[in-house]
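Before going further, learn to read the protein records used in this course. The integers have meaning only within a learned vocabulary of local backbone shapes. To see the layout at work, look at the sequence and tokens printed below.
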Amino acid sequence: MRVDWAIPCRYVEINDGLATIIGAGIDTFTVLELPVDLQVLLAVRLVGPSVDFQPDRQHELVGRVLDTQMNEISQLTSTFNALPNPTHLAGWEQATIFGVVHQFRADTAGAYTIDLAVDGQGHTVPLIVRVPGG
């Protein structure tokens, strides 16, 4: 199983395997002062072979936030089961979509990174934190 895409957004809702995403692609956070506590929501789509979508198959999601110097400042780890899609077409990969929330403190302006990995397969999402006039 791997991360197909991860989109920063303001809101994500999943119903019957379909995502409603609002504010998709937000990657720059302009804040009045630093340090600041930020909350970033990601819409995440995972894909993989049918064997990965069995009720008894457990997966691990690891999300890390890296600061402007690439130091880890926040981490979340979660395990989950991805259920099979009953309308799945044989021979095609299966997919699932869900939301992930990351909270972290930004001490300086600059480029931050959210690094997601499912079962060791990684995907990165860049973010920018800035202050007005800076």
Notes: The mean pLDDT is 94. The chain is about 0% helix and 65% strand. Residues 16 and 132 are 41 Å apart (CA to CA).
